Amino acid sequence: MAMGWNRVARRIRVPLGFAFAVLFLWLAKPTWLFLALSLVLVVPGLLLRGYASGYVKKNAELTMTGPYAHTRNPLYLGSILIAFGFALAAHSLWIALILAILFAAIYIPVIRSEEEYLRSVFPEFDAYATTVPRLLPRVVAAEGSGATKGVFSGALYRKHREYNALLGAAGMYAALILKLVLLRK
Questions:
Q1: HSE-up of 54 (CA within 13 Å, CB side)?
Q2: Is the separation of the CB atoms in 95 and 87 below 8 Å?
């Protein structure tokens, strides 16, 4: 049963994100203050995702450099920061609560599934996993992680099309500002 949900969670996470965006915009009650405050989470989330995408070589090697020397899942951590930043922008406790439930239901199984795959393909994964936390980052890079060997690659950033996160965030802010201006009382 768990393997079945892992597979479903992997497949529905992106389409579910688009469906949630509609609900998000409907429930959002943005204010200028909360839009500004949200940048404290959204901007670092976008930067972390962009930085991580310039290091990861999916399915080719176990990435342990750059942000991967601090957390095994910098892309998901960046997504969480962005999502909760937008919950803050929406000024809605309901959105924050729904997001927390969705992240737990989708990303916990996805992360576990990915770790099973990495463990089966890369023998060094277990040693890496003992020194680098799953999600909440270490302040100092893990020793032996090769943090100094890796170099950010703009080509990888473009290959992974991580600029789409920036475009999506800009579109979401535009929609929130439009809602704020049009529905001003």
A1: 14
A2: yes
